Amino acid sequence: MKPFVLITKCYSSLDHMCMQEAEKGVKFLSFPPVLHLQLMRFQYDPLTDNNIKINDRFEFPEKLHLDEFLKKTDPSDPADYVLHAVLVHSGDNHGGHYVVYINPKGDGKVSDLYIMT
Question: C-alpha 84: how far from its chain's center?
């Protein structure tokens, strides 16, 4: 992930508006020992005044390297994570069930556990 380019209005010293390109992004000071990421896969639909679930395929990498998102990196302690579990929801925002795919040892061997809600 890289910073995205944002075109925004600005004011010059001559007090007139101009357009300017700027980079916008996030740099973290540190990451926790265990990182939990949650994707909010809903989009507002103004025609129905409801949130609609996005069911597009999404793939998670088994290894995640996050040093590029740190303000200051430490070569002796890289921000590297191994994927241990993925929680998948089937249904809509009113109900459904979850399936958990677990990789407890971080060795790529995945088992699944079904949890009904």
Answer: 16
